[in-house]
Amino acid sequence: MRRQTRSIAPLWYLERGFRVPISLFKGADHNFQYRHGSVHMIAPWWQAGVIYQIYPRSFQDSDGDGIGDLNGIVQRLDSLAALGIDAIWISPIYSSPMADFGYDVADYCDVDPRFGTLADFDELLAQAHARGLKLLLDFVPNHTSDRHAWFVESQASRTNSRRDWYLWRDAAPDGGPPNNWISDFGGSAWEWDGATGQYYYHAFLREQPDLNWRNPAVQVAMHDVLRFWFDRGVDGFRIDVLWHMIKAADFPDNPPNPAWQPGMGEMHRVLQFHSADQPEVHAIAAAMRDIAGGYSATGDERVLIGEIYLPVERLMPYYGGERAEVHLPFNFQLIDAPWEARALARLIADYEAALPPGGWPNWVLGNHDRPRVAAKRGQAQARVAAMLLLTLRGTPTLYYGDELGLSDVAIPYERVRDPRELREPGLGLGRDPVRTPMAWDASENAGFSTARPWLPLHEDWPTRNVAVMAEDPASILALYRQLLTARRAHPALAIGDFALLDSAGDVLAYERRQGAQRLVVALNLGAQVQHLDLPDWAGGCPPLLSTIPGPAQIEGRALRLRPNEGVILAPA
Ligand code: GLC
Description:
Blueprint: E1 5-6, H1 11-14, E2 23-27, E3 32-36, E4 39-43, H2 45-48, E5 51-54, H3 70-75, H4 77-83, E6 87-90, E7 94-95, E8 107-111, H5 118-130, E9 134-139, H6 149-156, E10 168-169, E11 190-193, E12 198-201, H7 216-232, E13 236-239, H8 281-296, E14 303-306, H9 312-315, E15 328-329, H10 333-336, H11 341-354, E16 362-364, H12 373-391, E17 395-399, H13 419-423, H14 466-470, H15 476-489, H16 491-495, E18 497-500, E19 507-514, E20 517-524, E21 530-533, E22 543-546, E23 553-555, E24 558-561, E25 566-569
Bound molecules: alpha-D-glucopyranose.
């Protein structure tokens, strides 16, 4: 069938005033059709775009309680649009007792008063859409809060109609827990309920009982939650701990982990062989995709992203087989990868090779659970990492504050809030250090709040903030903006093919190509000068962008990379 096109650039380009060297047509299927020379390429927004994760407690406080909120996010939407991202994912905002800061949901269809109201949410969505930004929510299907009305009923008696909505089991013959499963936050994953004489299962805190997804009524209720938010207009969901959702039906013991050491945290004592990544989870993911697909038929595609910490070969099935599952199973490999050129090249090649046909890649450098990239790699390499993230093939997800080069913030003991830290202190497992407030300017509390922030700010906030760094062309914020502009201006970067280039020493180099458009990305992952022999076609290419101010040094086919320098070369 002939694709209908309208010669109108989508609003999200026009409103932000971008000049792009391509003409854009919006097709009848609401995907964007890029025309560059004779090349026609179709890319949905979630492939060409860049996602930005907001931890809502820490983004912007609008009501002076030291905690960020939805109206605060609205205040900062212009700043996000100026940064050049395309979609926002907000960590949970639902009603919650906050035992795990919103990942313990008491009502999936309401907003917690700390964050605002449903009306505030609608306003945020409208304001985001008015700026051409998509908005994704965090769906937490594996567990609820123990205060959720469903669990309150389930706990009330063994005969309650919702008893089977959660995972209740009798004690082992010795009276102990039904098996050896360990909570991800330490301790047994089973909690004794004296009143009804059974244990319930919780993969995380005891305040987060796991739902029984084998029960069709649970599936119906949770599908209704997806519809509730899709009906309001959200553009998709990040799905919390997707691979945890189904456990082996007979609850056998997990095998011990032979590599376990105390510093790893108690959860790693056993391998989560029976408690996660069970075959039946794929039908659950496919059913969610069907729901998202039903909404996509009436507008831009609604997207599902799965939080899945698994090795690559076990990650790929979450794209789906005969039935589609999530659009993007999060690829967290860069967070823990050895920061070494050959190892990274292998990791990238292996990931690309493992993708199923039609599977679109994605990359992540950090999130609200993992150490920040600047803490792991240092400030100089954080810039190189930014270039890597934004030039690899696939959808990048940025974590708020990484564009400022925020590092992990040391939290004094009396200010620790994360239950992960409080339950297993001193192992470095706590997540408060990566959840500290965003710094907007040099005013009181960095413009985040008029009150004392719920977590301390980084010490250098008077200079490490958006307002100051936006004025400094050498800042990491300026680099992020340039990279995002470059992605937008070059389809080769946003959606083009990828090929590694021969390189040696600390250099990781690759080509991105879209039709006639070819670019070279060369990254020096070390602190010494490095050289790269460019391919013939790239000889004499002028640099488009460097992570270090000052012109990159190229003579013919010889590229000289300064210590910690990454460059993009684009033929004129
Ligand atoms: C996910 C979230 C994490 C949370 C956990 C339990 O891993 O990212 O923050 O603690 O799920 O919901």
